[in-house]
């Protein structure tokens, strides 16, 4: 067994030392415009080919010509002692060369090129970050598949590989990793880009370039002249020094989108630099009413600041708003034609304020160390929360179905009337779209302070619904109000009771309007007042006059009050009953008076002997005729005195 193993080892070493392959010579010719040609020449001796091949050169060459990738121009020659196969790949640019090589290799073939003509870097650097033999893997497969060589010999087909690069009239030779460079550089420690977004959509930016004194002194005059040309006309620049570190700082204030782009083109010394803003009025569906969307994209061409072997610079990107929250998307060392809402693919690296890779320098300052780069595409998407300095929260309760709530947000002095008008339009649009009856919003100004004032009128359920819509907190009328409502009001009183008990409870919760980011640590005073049935509730343990909203303070204060008040319905019922009794009594009195009066009138009439039944007859003239009889006279008396004549006679 030991003899068998020894025999196999000897055979393996014999194959290793006797196997002879060809030489692969690669030549890269680069023009000044970075077009050029890549030539790969494979040379193998006829003796080595005959010893290691199973087919004739004609069969092998035919297979190679058939399988050669379209990106190569192929040529076959032979001399007295050698076979020569030449593969030529012309390219219009380095991007074209990289694309063709990736098509041949089926893998990424990255080329890094830097032409240094700036103050910090001079010369050029060319590097192929892949093995040149990767472009010949198809060639090895063809020789094995056509039976030219055994698969055990495949690794010996290329015995050695050399690369020669021609650029700028000079020749550079490389082995293994292909690198050609001829330049010097002065290292910059850091290039810091800090952005502050204002509420009106303008931008503040600070640009700081730091370099050690020992490096600055190598070309001080040239570097200082370069940085002087880097100051935009709308900015200010100055040098400072601390512990041997010199920093040149450019300060930009209140720049519009166009001004920012012009300023950054001046600073980067490149017309390729782009700055585009996507911000506008907040969407009506936005969670926070007192905010605006902020979104901007920029492409930074920083090649003039390249200061290492790759012509790159160490960059730190900073968002320094304490009242902002958002995400930064970027692509390193590349320009991408972006669409803010469609660019976020796998190739974009996403950092946000909760990412562990983000360094938190201070409150509201988020730092993104982007390491070394020469070009970068960035997109920032977030929200700007307006700086609220004070809330006035006034509630008036008349009954369960009649409540008035007014919430006034005082904005920082820096807030302009135009910004406030934008907020009013956004809030009004939301109210109209949701058809919130009894809800209005208006702008007020007191001593130069802008205010946004919400007024809500209606029942407790109606106000709860309005608050829920405005703050995106859903309140269902069927839900338990005690657990979920912002306002709860119950009335307890009997029909005949002269007093009424109003049970009132309210949650003072500004977060739905403000939704401060975690970085926002400012304490906002809330001045609270409560009035029930026309009487103001004085400050007590139940009704705080002032609440602080912010770090280490509660985000919601719950107010509960029970108060006895006048029951107007009970009083009305009592008045109706009293009026009814008075009316009945007066009716009876008038009736009795009428009866008494009639009785007295009848008695008086009888006393005077006046008959109301027949009037006194007129006097009858005497007619001289024959003398009437006794009976006739008696009848005449009866007619004259009526029915009572009998009693009188």
Proportion of helical residues: 25-40%
Alpha-carbon distance between the two ends: 186 Å
Count of distinct strands: 31
Please state the average pLDDT score. Answer: 77
Structural class, judged by helices and strands? Answer: alpha+beta
Strand order of the largest sheet: 12-13-11-10-16-20-19
State the helix count: 15
How would you summarize the topology of this molecule?
Blueprint: H1 2-18, E1 22-30, E2 36-45, H2 46-52, H3 57-67, E3 73-78, E4 82-91, H4 94-105, E5 111-117, E6 121-128, H5 137-145, E7 158-167, E8 170-174, E9 178-185, E10 190-197, E11 203-212, H6 213-216, H7 220-229, E12 236-242, E13 245-255, H8 257-268, E14 274-277, E15 291-301, E16 313-319, E17 324-332, E18 349-352, E19 359-362, E20 365-373, E21 375-385, E22 388-399, E23 402-411, H9 417-434, E24 439-446, E25 449-458, H10 460-471, H11 481-484, E26 487-492, E27 499-508, H12 511-514, E28 524-532, E29 535-536, E30 546-549, E31 557-566, H13 568-608, H14 630-641, H15 645-648
Helix pairs in contact: 3-5
């Amino acid at each position: 067994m030991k003899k068998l193993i020894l025999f196999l080892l000897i055979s393996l070493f014999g194959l290793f030392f006797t196997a002879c392959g060809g030489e692969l010579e690669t030549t890269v010719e680069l023009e000044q415009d970075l077009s050029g040609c890549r030539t790969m020449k494979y040379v193998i001796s006829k003796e080595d080919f005959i010893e290691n091949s199973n087919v004739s050169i004609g069969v092998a060459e035919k297979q190679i010509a058939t399988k050669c990738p379209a990106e190569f121009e192929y040529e076959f020659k032979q001399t007295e002692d050698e076979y020569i196969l030449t593969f030529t790949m012309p390219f219009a640019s380095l991007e074209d060369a990289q694309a063709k090589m990736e098509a041949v290799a089926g893998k990424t073939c990255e080329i890094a090129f830097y032409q240094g003509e700036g103050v910090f870097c001079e010369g050029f650097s060319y590097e192929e970050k892949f093995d040149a033999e990767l472009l010949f893997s198809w060639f090895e497969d063809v020789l094995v598949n056509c039976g030219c060589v055994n698969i055990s010999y495949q690794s010996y087909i290329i015995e050695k590989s050399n690369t020669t690069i021609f650029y700028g009239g000079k020749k550079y030779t490389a082995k293994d990793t292909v690198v050609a460079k001829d330049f010097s550089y002065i290292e910059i420690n850091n290039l810091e880009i800090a952005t502050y977004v204002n509420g009106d959509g303008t931008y503040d930016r600070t640009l700081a370039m730091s370099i050690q004194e020992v490096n600055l002194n190598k070309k001080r005059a040239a570097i200082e002249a370069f940085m002087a040309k880097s100051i935009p006309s709308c900015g200010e620049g100055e040098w400072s020094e601390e512990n041997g570190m010199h920093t040149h700082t450019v300060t930009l204030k209140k720049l519009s989108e166009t001004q920012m782009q012009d300023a950054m083109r001046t600073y980067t010394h490149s017309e390729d630099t782009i700055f585009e803003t996507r911000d506008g009025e907040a969407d009506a569906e936005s969670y926070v009413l007192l905010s605006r969307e902020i979104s901007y994209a920029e492409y930074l061409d920083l090649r003039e600041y390249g200061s290492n072997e790759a012509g790159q610079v160490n960059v730190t990107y900073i968002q320094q708003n304490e009242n902002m929250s958002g995400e930064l998307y970027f692509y390193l060392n590349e320009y991408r034609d972006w669409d803010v809402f469609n660019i976020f693919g796998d190739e974009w690296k996403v950092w946000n304020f909760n990412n562990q890779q983000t360094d938190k320098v201070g409150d509201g300052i988020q730092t993104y160390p982007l390491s070394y780069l020469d070009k970068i595409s960035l997109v920032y998407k977030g929200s700007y929360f307006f700086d609220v300095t004070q809330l006035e929260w006034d509630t008036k309760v008349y009954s369960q179905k009649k409540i008035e709530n007014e919430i006034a947000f005082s904005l920082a002095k820096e807030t302009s009337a135009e910004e406030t008008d934008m907020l009013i339009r956004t809030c009004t649009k939301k109210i109209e779209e949701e058809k919130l009856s009894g809800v209005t919003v208006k702008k007020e100004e007191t001593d130069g302070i802008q205010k946004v004032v919400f007024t809500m009128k209606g029942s407790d359920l109606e106000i709860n619904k309005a608050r829920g819509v405005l703050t995106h907190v859903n309140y269902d009328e069927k839900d338990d109000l005690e657990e979920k409502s912002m306002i709860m009001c119950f009335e307890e009183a009997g029909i005949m009771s002269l007093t009424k008990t109003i049970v009132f409870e309210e949650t003072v919760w500004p977060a739905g309007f403000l939704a401060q980011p975690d970085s926002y640590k400012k304490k906002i005073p809330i001045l609270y007042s409560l009035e029930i049935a026309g009487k103001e509730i004085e400050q007590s343990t139940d009704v705080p006059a002032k609440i602080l909203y912010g770090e280490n303070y509660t985000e919601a204060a719950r107010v509960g009050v029970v108060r006895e008040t006048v029951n107007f319905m009970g009083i009305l019922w009592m008045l109706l009953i009293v009026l009814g009794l008075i009316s009945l009594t007066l009716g009876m009195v008038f009736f009795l008076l009428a009866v008494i009066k009639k009785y007295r009138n009848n008695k008086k009439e009888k006393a005077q002997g006046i008959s109301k039944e027949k009037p006194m007859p007129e006097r009858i003239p005497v007619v001289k005729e024959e003398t009437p009889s006794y009976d006739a006279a008696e009848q005449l008396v009866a007619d004259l005195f009526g029915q009572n004549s009998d009693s009188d006679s």
